[in-house]
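pinging the channel bc i need a second pair of eyes. not urgent but kinda urgent?? the chain im working w is below, pasted from the shared doc
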Amino acid sequence: MIKATPVRSSNSSLNLPDFAAIHAETIVADVDALLDQYQQCLESLENLGMDELGWESLVMPELAISLKLDDYWSPVSHLNHVADNEKLRKAYDKARENITAFFASRGQNHKLYQRWQQLQDKPSFQQLDAVQQRIIELELRDFKLSGVALEGKIGQRFRELVEKKSQLSSDFSNNLLDATKLWRKVITDKSQLAGLPENELRLLQGLAEDADEVAGSYLLNLSFPAYIAVMTYADDTGLREEIYRAFSTRASENMRVAGSEQFDNNQVLLDILAVREEMAAQLGFPDYAKYALETRMANSSTEVMGFLDQLAVQAKPAAAVQFEELQAFATAAGGQQQLQAWDIGYWSEKLRQDRYSISEEQIRPYFPAPAAVDGLFGIVEQIYGISFRLDITVSSWHTDVQYYRVYSAQGIEMAGLYLDLYARDDKRSGAWMDVCRSRHLQADGKTQLPVAFLTCNFAPAQGDTPSLLSHGDVETLFHECGHCLHHLLTRIDWPQVGGINGVEWDAVELPSQILENWCWEKPALDRFARHYQTGELLPDKLFARMRKARHFQKAMQLVRQLEFAITDMRLHLEFDPQNPLDPNQLMREVHNAVGVTPMPEYNRMLCSFGHLFAGGYAAGYYSYLWAELLSEDAFARFLEEGIFNPDTGAAFCAEVLAVGASRPAAESFAAFRGRSPEITPLLAAYGIGEDE
């Protein structure tokens, strides 16, 4: 359980949002007023003379107004993702459009760019500390990537492209959310759900109750918990195929639901690719991938593709063997002679149970969500010397949400965390971390403490049964908390490079992925993995089977990630607006070259690939594997020195978490590990190069 750490006052401030005070009717006017203040600030900065020019006169005034805008916009943006409604969405889209247009113009403000360049050129630049110098260097880089050198009609066109890209990404995300809501299937005959364990049946019953369906019925929808339940356990092949088709054709022309045609993302994603390509071309880049990699740890698309190809060469043979084993098992068990896409999850679970005598339903009772949260916080406390305390007085956007205050080992409050774990109809799918407040020094001398949002979509509690997590869910919880810790434990007082801000996209997953490893260590699990009814610890024999099963079909999982990453890079390397490729055909081409499982012709996964078309992973999906290379190698040091070794934890905190983007990620990794990353631990994590 979370300890009641003694509290000491500190010279700090929380400044938490008042979510109840956010009204859709005033959002646009409020944002416009803040943008007007911002513009007045910029105009004053443009007119600074050389004698006046300095850090205090140029950087600080804009930082103050930008933080004021961030403080307003962050909770609005968050509500749009976790409490969607028509009025909020309309207001959010309009305000986002205005913000995007403002910063597109700011990025091309040549007078402002000149002032930053002059600040770097002045002798006083050398008197600034290393963090301040890096902020200036990154600002000048970003000006160039924003088209500051573009003038006249070309500059105007670039601003239009930035705004259009933002609008298209919002359209893509909204289409996906609306299309996902469209498909639903009510089942009143329980026999149609044969094979589903009681926990999964309770989930579907709960969905039906929430939707006011007939008492005793079951509701299937495209929320991830419901989809996975059917795909993993339903004996009815036809039912699995039906929900697979619905899920894999979301927001596409192949979705078989009345009204879905208005949410087709095929043209939207083509338009996004075209806009990105034109933006890159205007800045002199041969393709969007080259443009995107300017802010990444990887040096070139050649380096990235070489990394992915190296993994594919080593992973595909192992993946092919794993699929052949699955096919042979299914055939011997009386299943299909030729496995289809909707059979993979079902027969994989059967094979896993047969080979390791283990199933998720055996594991779930040991991972009630509240205990998993307590266990996570306890583990983090021992690694990093911090503690979490629940504060029930802080208001939020939903009764499920909890707020935790974070304290240092000395009992000084240092951060805050909002935790929103469970799936809802008005909440976007997936799991993510986002910034609520950034650490910085305020004008009154107090430190604004960092605050983060941690959001998941776990199946909620049903009646007296708490939300029971799969082990994969537990890994997701740890993963997102790792992102939050990167933000919360920063010691950098300049938000431009503190926490996750400014960190290279292909390195930002390091703190999240490394924390997943504690989910596989028995001393860590013994802190919280107890049966929700009996209180029994996760049995050693069950854990031993979990460990043996850890690499089960991992090569198949790796090639799937490689399919996504290679498709992403090739889309942004090869897209030609004059002769547009068919993204779906390219995805199939990559699948045929790298993948080992079947993919139906109607599959339109790209139409729901929010990471690429509504998130920050364009020409960057490889980042998950790139950062996993870093995280597995970094965790190897913990294994060498002790997973709870406070000195190792302190070193990781000091060299990676605390420094944010105040220096390049490669330097931070080398400072912790003492060398550049090696690939062997990554391959071992996927069971490649060692016996299962």
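so Residues 1-9 have pLDDT under 50 and may be disordered. and Strands lie at 12-13, 184-187, 218-221, 387-390, 402-407, 413-422, 432-437, 440-441, 447-448, 451-458. — does that match what u expected or am i reading it wrong
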